[in-house]
Each structure stands twice: as structure tokens, then as C-alpha cells.
Here is the input.
Amino acid sequence: MEKKIGVYICKGCGIGDVLDIDKLSQIATEEFKLPCKVHESLCGEAGVNLIKGDIEGEGVNTVVIAACSHRVNWDVFNFGPEVIVERANIREQVAWSQPPKNDFTHEMAEDYLRMAITKAQKVEIPLGYKDEEEYNKTILVVGGGITGLTAALEAANANYDVVLIEKEAQLGGWVAKWWKTYPYQPPYKELQDSGIEEKIKAVMNHPRIKVYTSTKIEKTEGQPGHFDITLNQSGKTEQIRVGSIILAIGWKPYDARKLDHLGYGKYANVITQIEMEDMAQKGQIISPATGKPAQNVVFIQCAGQRDPNHLPYCSSWCCLVSLKQAKYVREMNPEAKVYIFYRDMRTPGQYEEFYKNAQNDVGIFLTKGEVVGVTENPDKTLNIEVENTLLGEDITVKADLVVLATGMVSRMEGIPTTREDVIKAYGLTGQEEPDVIEKTIAETPQPWEGVLNLAYRQGPEVPILKYNLPDSNFICFPYESRRTGIYPAGCVRQPQDIEACIRDAEGAALKAIQCMEMETRGETVHPRSGDLSYPEFFFQRCTQCKRCTQECPFGALDEDEKGTPKPNYFRCRRCGTCMGACPERIIGFQNYNVDIISSMIKAISVPEDDEEKLRILCFACENDAYPALDMAGLNHLQYSPLIRVIPVRCLGSVNLVFITDALSRGIDGVLLLGCKYGDDYQCHFVRGSELANYRMGKLQETLNNLGLEAERAQLVEVAITDYDKLPGIIDKFIEKIKELGPNPFKGW
Amino acid sequence: MANGRLVEPDLKFIDGVIELGGSSLKKCFQCATCSVVCPLSSEDDPFPRKQMIMAQWGQKEALIKDKNIWLCHQCQDCSAYCPRGARPGDVLGAIRAFAIEKYATPKWLAKLVREPKYLPLLFIVPIILFLFIALLNGTLPPKAGEIRPSHFIPDTTGLDLVFVPLSILLGVALFKSLSRFWKDISAGLVEKPSAYQMLLKGGWWGILFSTAKEILSHARFRKCGASANRTVPHFLLLWSFIGLFIVTGIGFVAEYIFHIELPFPMTNPVKLLANVSAVALILGALMILINRLQDKDAPKTYWDLSLIWIILAVGVTGALAEIFKLVEMAFWAYGFYLLHLASVFVLFLYLPYSKFAHLAYRTLAMVYEKYSSKA
Here is the structure.
């Protein structure tokens, strides 16, 4: 495409008061020989019409707007898919954060304009990734419990074909095993039926849902839209193709045999909540040791939960389950007494009403307390010793049935998810020769039962983070996993109750549909939803170093036998981590690549003889750090005018060559601003900022070889809420650079 | 391993507390807002949070021995601030009823007072008794002419014949109850106050004096926030009883020592005190009754309300008897006098066995608090 560039500078929002706009426009007209127009308010109707007029009248197809941040008014400055728009942020990051009519301020604005024009000259319009093969839009739901059933129904009712597989012979999962449930609607008072039977019937009768029971997945190959699944139904294999997957494999109870300090396994009268449901289904709550109806029932909450030796977390719902089961006992035997010993009674939201109702029962006795011992009497009754009770003393309660509230464990527990875990599962250390590893894996039967058994280079299952819950399992992005097109929902993802599972299933069904619909349009999914760019590889220069295939946070890249990456574009989230990883710089996007960023760095003017005018380059993560910088401007917080910010998709996409290029050009320091990394990371691409930090460690040697101080490049973690700290971070870094003195490479 | 007390909840006690006005008992979820807002609770041994769970758990024995249930004046600050809509003030009131019942002796008499079905009996017995006495004295019907109480029920062979032995019997019964109560509340005292500590407290007399001062001035009552409107009527009632007690005492002395014929003329300061006290009694009882009935959340139980009605009956029948006497309507004057004597008789019975007993138990609990406190 022949580019015809038009440059537009806005004087609104105080920009005209701070900068000498005529002088600024000379950058476009004299340095770049481009037409430049100035307007009082570009985002107003007249301003937009000015640009539209040039597009229609003059044939301008590449618009450079020096005005506000690209994070705002992007809809106003959208001139259709044929027109490239680049923005120079001279409002938030210059006019609002620097003193007016000042040389330093002006130079900053000039550099931003140069960088924007340079970028505009380089970028191409991304057209979206298209594949010749047809994109399959069937949804596979793995698991036939409440979540799976709901997800299948929701997706099918939205007119998508669904395949539902369940490893048991019956649908319904745990919920089908419950006698009653606590209430899910106002007035939240009485026990109710779960309604699972109707749901199973609806799924079985739905024309768009195909159900496989007693079925497991042997292998999952391919990528979204092209997942090839090998099913095994009681020994009979079948191959199906699906578009996206909802992982609703649920939970298992924590192994109560590990709780012998509470008497489980030792005394017949100690059971779990699961066994209690079974008893209730049979119609009578009995004392197992004697077979007589239980008269004194004790519930011990947090049994093996919130305990570093067992489950460190709270399973959230056991309190309500015990209250529910206390009602079972009282409804079946009004003479019986029920005791509940809790650490904290947790009944979130409206469930408080159910708690109140149960509490109002004169035969239900509640107290906070710490159960320190369960011992058996000769008549098989149990003495439960409780300390630190609300009664203000240590007490003993005699019971003929003790129910343990054991926690919920994700089904991912015990399943290796990454390549490293797999090697360990085979009893290897990973230090062996690659041949030995391959041979062992090929010849030994798989020592665990997998779920999806993904044929991915990075591992056979959706990666987990903490507590065996799938990675990316945090508040902002429920249902996301690190495997595009695979959406965990329900208790595999987080301990949840029926109501929460239903909500989860609805959300995950929507995500699965969204994935398929966006990808057929060539767009990517979360968090760069709608991005039409995609990575391109210049394979002739690939050295098979495997960095990209190892580092891709989403397992998008497989390898051929030689180790050359095999991209699965539908798995890709466009973060550019591969681009940052590649030492050969052969990976790039149409509008975001090594050449574009290097050229932008080159566009920064570096004064050679002025010690005051140092130049500091800053790569700021677009997701949190860049908006935080904008917010700093919005709050008119002032910071050093020596900084030049380039927004990046993720710090993971920052290639070390950017830093060495910048420093060898005489730029005095490079600051990387990105998200928090580690176990409680905030990186939107999971591993990007962590990888950037890792690479920064490698950079030191290079800088030492160049005779430069390692401190000239630094990575700082910032959250979006840290906008008020940013001026301090920037100024502190620049102070340090000032101490080091100007870059000795200046002028070379 | 810990060896805590074996706890077995008494379901009957829980039902009883609920019936006696503690229906909100089970609502408590132990946040302890009540103990924090309570103006009367102490830092060392706060209430009523702990009493709430002890009641929920049916711990009758521990509760009735707890001095704190008596230190509560049912201000209802706790009930006003409870986030859960529980009314600890009422629950403690119900527990107090249990405590009075538990220490009451003889039990059959306590039962007559506690159960509404025996109320007619309580009135009929003294009416018949006094009519019978009048018959024996030959004063039935009273002779015409000047209307004097003693023309109907003679003082020595009538009034005193009934009330002196009754007072002695009830006094002995109450004393027995209170000794058991004292034994129980002081059983938990780990360390008796040292001689030096007692000296600081002013000895037993000092303790009694400061307790009396607190009660007479209503110092604790006045700390109440939510039901500050209870202070004035209760104050009126207490002082009217004191006034009437003084009047009766003077009357007794006047009659048996100075042989002055009763009643005093209307102009006599003693009579004036009697009339002022009577007005205060009626006013106080009416105010309490109105407050109670207007408070929609307050439980309306026989245990709570019957005492106020009886006090009101004593005041109103006495006043009417006096008024009819002044307007010289003999039948009505003597009629109301008979009813007045019956009401007073019932009120006497109420003292050890009804809510009225708080007079004794709370006083003793306050004495114990002062005695046992470290300060």
C-alpha cells in the first residue's frame, strides 16, 4: 500500500498553552516533509471532519494525530479498516505532566511526534489470520456434573453443537448424590431439591447435544477450531473434531484418611459430609457403630482445611453444607441435638438468611472453637474436646456421630500439566539425555490418568498455579486458562457451590462461543480481544534455539523434529513474548515488530553535547503501566522531561536488542515498567513480566562487555493503581543515571 | 489434652427462656456488639455476649449462678444495637426469671405466683380470709357512721394478724433463697479479698452503703441509653415504696407505742407523705405500663406484666378506698379497702417469687460485685 501520511496536531485540553505548536509542526513539515494541520480541538466534529476531508479529498490513508493518549478517543479517531491511525501522546504524558513553554517539554513533544510518524511509516494494516481449513464450531464439554450440564445446555440453546462427555456411567456428578440442597432463591430459608434430574433430562433430550457417558479423552490434538479429540468409550475409540473446550471436571473431596487426628478411619462414628449425604439419601441418620438413630451429631468445620498440613485454603461452602446437614438431622429426628464447631462461620451473601434460619433451631448449637481431640468411649460414643470456645471455657461434647467438613480439591490435583511434571511423573529428573527421556516416555505406560491429554509441546494439561487450580484463575479473568480455547469452569477452577457453578458454566459457555466467533474473523481472544495482527516467522533464519516454543505462555508453538517452531495461530494471544524471546529477531507482527520499535528508538533525538539533556527510554506495558502513566498525567503529577515512553504489548515482547540498540545509540538509560510477576502475578499474559525480568538478568553480561553499567537498564513492577508512585519511580531512576553520568557512546 | 467440662444442653431451659420473653435468643451470632455497647458491663467480666451463647447452649446451671444476669438493668442498649435483631436484654430478663424460680422456696408457692391460672385464687384467698376475720371480729358489716378502716378490719386482730405472720414467713423463705443464691454466686470466687482490700472497700458496711447509694440514686439506671424513659418511673416506684414503708413503720410505732388512733388526719405530714407516695406509685406504675405496651418489640409476658398490674392495683384500690371514704360512700370505701388489702397480700407473695424479687437478688448481686472486685 502506498502510504499518504497526514499529520494533525491538536491544541485543545491545554496542549496549546504548554507547547509552541508552530514549532512542533515544523517537525512534520521540515524533518519529515509531511503536510501538517493544527486544530483547536481535533476530537470535536470540526476536527474529525478536517481529517475525514483529507482522507476523502487528498487521499490521506495514514493519519498521525498528536493529541491525547491512544487509550482515549480511539473510537472518535477510527476512520475505518483502510486507514492507519497513529497517535503521539502529547496531552497526558507531555502537556499535563510537564511545565509549560519550556525547552525540555518541547523536546519531549517533538520526540513523541517523531516516534509516531516513524511508526506510521513502518506499520502495515493487519488483516487477521485466516486458515484454509474450515473452523469447527462444536463445543466439547468435559464433565457431566452441574457445571458441564449447564454449560452444554447454555451453548446448545445459543445454537451451537455440543458434545458432552462424562467418565461415569451416569450424568449428574456430585449434585445427583446430594439428598437436598440449601436454598438458592429468596427467602433463602428452607432446604430444596437440586433439580439436577430435570437438567439431565433436558440435556439428554436436546437435539444439539451429543452425550457420551463412560467416556474418557485419550488425546487432544490441534488448536481452537481444529481440536481433534480421541475419545475412549468403555474401550471403544472414536475421533471427533471440536472448536473449543469447556473443562468442567469438577472436584474431589480431600482424603479424610489423612485426618486420623479427628478419628476418621479409627472410629466408625466419624464420617465425612459426603457420607452424610449418602445416609440422608437412605432416609435415616444413624450412628454407624450401633446402627441406632443418631441423637447427638457433631460437625467439625475446616477439617483439614485452612491448615498448612492439609488444604491451606477455605473451600468456602462447607459451612453451608453443615448447616444444611444439621437441618437433615433435626428434620429426621426432632429430638436430636446438633453441634457445629467452626473457626469462622462463612455464609456469603444472601445465604446469611439460611444460616439465620438454621441458627434459630433450638436443637442446633454453634460455637467457634478448636477441636483438639476426638476419643471413643466404651459404648462407642465419642468425646469431642473443644478449646477456645465462645462459652469462655474448654468443653467436651458427647456424640454418637461426628461429621467432618473436608474440603474440595480440584480434579487437576495429581495430574502433571507441564513437560517438567511429566518427566518427573515418569521417575526421571530431567537431567537425562533427551533420547533417554523420549524412550522412557514412549515405552512406559502413562503412570497417571490424564484429562485432556493434550499433544502440546509444553505439556499434556491446562497448567495449574496454586492449589492445583488452573493458572489464570483470578478475579479479573475467570474461565481463562493458559491454553486458548480451553475454558475451565466450576469446581475445577475454584471451590464453588451449585449456584456459582451454574453462573460459571454460563460464563464459560460464552467464552467458548466468543473464542470460536472471534477466531473465525481472524481476531484473537482475551486479553487482546479483537486484535487482527498475528505473528509472522522468517523461518529461513531460525536457529532452532527453542526459546519461543518454551517461553510462549499459551503453548501456541509446537516443534517439528528439528526443533523449528510450528505455530498454531488459533492458540496465539498476540502478546509478542516470542518476539521478545527470539535472538534472531525473526518474529514480528504487521503493526508491532523489531524493526518498528528499533526505528522509533532511532527517531528519538539524542543531544550529544548537553549533559543536562540526558535521554531515558521507557518501555511501558500497555495493560497497566501505560494507563498508570496516563493517570499520572490526568492528575497533573509532574515528572522528569527526559523520559521517552514506548508502549509495548507486554514486557515479554521486549527484545534485548531494543535495549542494546538504545544504549549503543547514546540513550543514557532504559526503564522497563511492567506488571507484578511471581506466584501472585498480575501480568495479563501470565509470564511476560517474569520472562522480561529473567532476560534482564542475562543483559548484564552484554552491558559489561560494552563497558556500560548494568544499572542503566532496570525493570520496575507497577500496578495500575500505582500512578501516584510513578513520578517517584521515574525520577529516582533518572537520578541514578545522572550519577552514572552521560552514556559514553553518545555521538558514535 | 484438654479436659473441658462435659456440656449437655438443656432443651427445656432453652424453650423456657424463649417462652419467658427471650424469643430472640437463637438469633445471636456472637459478635459481642452488646457487650461493647452495654453501659453497665465491666471490662473484666463483660456481658451479655457470653450469657447469650450459654443460653443458646442451654447452660441453665451456669447461668443462674452468674451475677452478671443481675447486674443487667435491661437498659436494652444491647437490643438496640444488635445487628442480628436479638434482644439480649430480654433474654437476660428471662434467665433472671429462671433464677428466681430456681432459688424460690417453697416451690408450690412460687408456682402459684408464676402461673396466670392461679391469679384468681391469689386474690380470692385473702378476700375470704379478711371477710372471715371481719366476721370473727363482729365487724361484718362495719358499723355505720364514721368510715374507718379499722371499723371493718381491726388493726391488731385483723391486719396485723395476717400481715405480721405473712411477712415473717415470706421473710424467712426469701432469706433461705438468698443464702443459697449467695453461696452459688460466691462459689466461683477464687480468692477472697484480703483484709487490706476490704479496708479499701470500707468493710462490709462500706460495701452495703455504696450499694444502697447506687440503688437509691438509680446511678446505674441513669447510664442506660436506649430505654432512658424507664429510669424516672422506676425511680418513682422505688421511692414511693420507701415512702409507704416509712409511713407503715410510723403507723406501727404510733399505734403500739404511742397509742395514737389511726389513720392520721389528712393534715398530718405522715398522711401527706403517704398520699404523695401513693400518687408516685400509681404514676410510676402507669408510666412503666405505657412504656412497655408502646414498645412493639418488647415481649409481653405474664411474668413481666403481672407485677406492674399488681402494683397498679395496690395503688388504685388504695386511692379509691380513700376517695370514697372522703366522700363518705361507705360501701364503696370498704369494698375497695378489701380489694386493696387483697392486692397488698398478693404483692407480699410477689416479693420472693415474682419479678419483684429482683429487689433482693439484684441488690445482693451488686453487693457481691463490690465484694469480689479486685479494685
The first strand of chain A starts at residue 5 and ends at 10. Chain A has a mean pLDDT of 95. The CA atoms of residues 27 and 466 of chain A lie 52 Å apart. Chain A touches chain B at residues 337, 345, 355-356, 359-363, 365-368, 372-373, 383, 385-387, 390-398 (CB under 8 Å).
